[in-house]
Amino acid sequence: MRFIVRGFPGPSWGACFIFTDGFWTRLKAAGLVDWRRRMFTVDDFLAVEDLVTAELPIRQRAMRGLAALVDESFGVDAANLAELLRSRGGIHTLVRLLDDESAGVHHRAMMVLGNLVGEFFDEEACQSLVQLCDAGGLERVLVHIERPFPSCLYATACLQNMTAIDDACCAELRDAGGGPKL
To answer: Can you give the pTM of this predicted structure?
Structure first.
């Protein structure tokens, strides 16, 4: 099928992007070079060394890809994705990304974490919750409660899923001062 975008006949995915060679070099160095040719995988997210300190376009691309993958995963695929993130340090990285200055990055990190700690997504969500709390995620998510919309929405949804599967998390939330904020 051919589409016309701004007078240019040819295949299009709805937008034209112009990137410098330096941008593609940085994506390649970060392990995200093939994202244009195939589906994004959790391995693409995990392959970026120290994603938290990577350049903003790389962090954004990695979080867009992971969030889309989580959004499209169900059943066994979701459980496998969650297990892979748990076993390879992905949850710790996501918790660190909650402090990112880019709203798109920390919103997607909260969305992914909120799904990982939901039993509707993964029957072993309690394991993800343990890693999230051990990495200081409860406190970091709680910070977003007082931020403007939509940060407060993502934080509330994430906290709802966290507290729904573990009563001890509710006590930790109260101890961290979450009651008045909610």
So the answer is: 0.79
